Amino acid sequence: MQGTYNLIIVGAGMAGLCAAAEAAAQGAAVLVLEKEADFGGSSLLSGRYMAFAGTDLQQKEGIDDQSQFLIEDMLAVGEGKNEAALVEAYGDHQLETYEWLLSKGVQFHKVQAVSGHSVPRGHTITPKQAITALYEAAAASGTVTFKTAATVKRLRKDEAERVSQVVFEYGGKLETATAENGVLLTSGGFSKSEELLENFAPQLVGAIRIGGKGNVGDGIKLASEQGAWLRDFPYLKGTYGFHPTADGPRKSQALVFYKGAIIINKFAERFVNESISYKLIGTEALVQPEKITYQIWDQTIMNEGVSGDALYDFEKLLSLGLIEKADSLETLAAIIQVPAETLKTTVDQYNDDIQNGGDSKFGRTTLTHHFGTPTPIENAPFYAMRTTVAMLATYAGVSVDKSARVLNAFNEPIAGLYAAGEIAGGFHGAGYMTGSSLGKAAIFGRIAVQAALEKQVVL
Question: What are the residue boundaries of the FAD-dependent oxidoreductase 2 FAD-binding domain, all occurrences included (predicted)?
Fold first, then answer.
């Protein structure tokens, strides 16, 4: 079967659906191919944050923020290894994209401090609601065709060496569709591919695998066959903060350390500055003895939990039996089987340092990045959660420019080929700032469509 469209989108997570909604608004004929039975992919497993600056939610909270501050934070967290042009494009388009998402029915609930930000900038969504709203916005146009359980097998170039054909399996048959303006890959990463993880990230062998089941790197392979260059694989890191049971049906996670908890190993010793990116913490956690680590906190910090929040609903995790509680540090140590005397010494030293304005071991002075003030861990009861590293998203992939055009090894655009979302490399660099993954998916999903339809090409 042969069909011709203005644009073919491969993958229907946040990036793919934002692209579909943007293309629909421009009246383009679009085919969206999703190999899973449902839409959403890893976007449904996200921490629910999107990074935006200067929004109405921030203004209501009296938070002074702007795009330049966001750009500076991203570059700082990425340790200068991220492509500055991509980060600047994010900053240039982030506020308009936030307002565009609102116009499409995406609901933002609140804003709070999250990893890597100098001010509260994590705008929370309910992923299912956002995905549904974007799908409905695209579908309502009548110009977008969705096909689920459709697996893309190959991309093909035409006589002009432009990527224009997509070969896919649908309903047990091979079909071919043609894109007049371009093919956009929004197919995610490879967090569920043991083959690619073994080759590109052997240091993550101890991380549990919890990404979207379709994230096996097929989009990266499709692009590579067409000559795509790859970026950021040396910086692959897992995400710290998950309970070990997160490799099951419930993805239980808590970032209590960003509210003031400390992190210890099996010897009850701290090993990291808890305010840094949870990606960097994950790297340190994977080299601890037996990869065993715990978050430790008190009732004061427990009271900072946020009901219903995917990362900060501590009471819910306690009710599920995933958090241990004790009236003393000695009893808590016995429960989690770490040396009681060492735990007491570790907490006492940390408390002394915090009360004296510093952290003599690791230099912690804030809760997260440049925001917040740590408090002593001294008010019973005390709490602990065994915490591990998960491979949720890979944040490395094909090289793109700031118009989301896929680049070859000579930094030249591959005609007709675009990429947005997790599949695209070059954006995060050596670190990861919370909310920037969903943020870049939305922003560059739209930019890719604008470039492909020749409405806007950022040169």
Answer: 7-438
